[in-house]
Amino acid sequence: MNKKTYIDEVLKEVSIPKEMKKRVKEDLIQRIDQGFEEDPFFNILDALGHPKEFADDITDTYYQEYGQEGKPNIVSSAIKSGAYEYKSKKNLFGLPLIHINTGGKYGIKHAKGIFAIGDLASGVVSLGGISLGLFSFGGISLGGIAIGGVAIGGLAIGGLTLGLYAIGGAAFAVFEAFGGFTKIL
Amino acid sequence: MRNTTKQFKKGVLELAILKLLIESDQYGYAIVKMIHERSMGKLTIKEGTLYPILYRLEDNNLIESYWSESSDTRGKQRKYYRITKQGRQKFKDMYQDFLQVFDGIRLIVKEANENE
User: What values do phi and psi take at A41, rounded to 5?
Assistant: First the structure.
């Protein structure tokens, strides 16, 4: 990651007033230039960390120092990057009661909880791009009751479904199948 | 980092920064390194944490920044921070407060240990 990309990423992620961003930019340019002066193989990520982490540090400290007024709420920050994680303190059977985990532009994240929502989600009730659960909802969904684009389960409902009972555009079932195209296996 | 460590560090870092700037003018990264070295690794600060503290100290007129060349910057300007008169006074007040709190806690813990 080069200097420009790093600084652009930090400034995109940081949630502070414009005039503060200018100061951060100025200091980051100086810091990175200095790093390369000291070491031609200076690695920005090793020295300063991931731009998102750097931006979060700046944002957190800024609102500690200047007061909480204008602090962006967690939801708007999450919407901005698409990355969000929440894990409830309450556990059940060794799993968090609620786990929400989305990587957004930082990649695919796995949510694992009684109620799980994520890029990949597994739990009793799960909702995700790919989800696995007793009650499972997702793009690709596997579960006792599975609802999704592609659904596989005891009862599978969706576009392409495979189950003991299946309802779908194309439904393949062991016992009963309902839909546009149906086949009993 | 433990949450308590974070809470303790908040005020202490400001104290450390002001003290270093009383000794000599510094630029951001030098402050990061000095805090780590002078505390023998017991205190560390990331630059993402340092910058907003410096900005707030500057906005409160406790420190001020200026651009200057240094011998190792090959003609490039570098932003330095220096402490103001108000900053020096602030450090004295803060340090007194810190010692008072520190002594108070030490006595409480000592008494509690003796009673155990």
Answer: -100, 25
The ipTM estimated for the assembled molecules is: 0.81
Q: What is the pLDDT of residues A133-162, one digit of tens each?
A: 999 999 999 999 999 999 999 999 999 999
User: What is the pTM assigned to this prediction?
Assistant: 0.61
Angle between helices B28-38 and B3-23 (to 10 degrees): 110
Question: CA dist A41 to A3, A26, A34, A128, B54, Å?
Answer: 13, 22, 12, 41, 28
Task: Give the separation between CA B62 and CA B45, rounded to whole angstroms.
Answer: 20
Q: Kindly state whether A54 is in contact with chain B, defined as any CB-CB distance less than 8 angstroms.
A: yes
A33 chain-B contacts, CB cut-off 8 A: 76
**DSSP secondary structure letter of residue A104:** G
Q: Are A184 and A177 in contact (CB under 8 A)?
A: yes
State the pLDDT confidence band at B24, using cuts at 50, 70 and 90: very high
Contact residues on chain A for B47, CB-CB shorter than 8 A: 27, 31, 48, 54, 57
The answer to whether the Cβ–Cβ distance between A61 and B27 falls below 8 Å is: no
